[in-house]
Design goal:
single chain; mainly alpha; 4 helices; about 0% strand; elongated
Length: about 80
């Protein structure tokens, strides 16, 4: 839960909490002799490590670029305006 909380707040440390949780469940899977648990949490651990490695503090800002949500809203307003009698 801490991992999701910090990633939702756009904090890189969320990946560290995810890695710690995945390591704990890998150990649990080994103790419980559950190969599926070890494989699943091992792959989640790799994904969290990759997220930590690829993290960028601030995404690049492009001049004059429009977010996909803003573009969709603009197109919707244009369709509604065109549909009015």
């Amino acid at each position: 839960m801490l991992s999701s909380y910090y990633l939702g707040k756009k904090c890189k440390r969320g990946f560290l909490f995810g890695i710690a949780g995945n390591l704990a469940f890998v150990v649990f899977g080994i103790m419980a002799e559950s190969a599926a648990n070890v494989v699943a949490n091992g792959s989640y651990l790799i994904l969290n490590a990759r997220g930590w490695w690829k993290w960028k503090e601030k995404p690049p800002v492009f001049e004059g670029a429009e977010s996909p949500a803003a573009q969709a809203a603009r197109e919707k307003r244009a369709r509604l305006a065109a549909a009015r009698p």
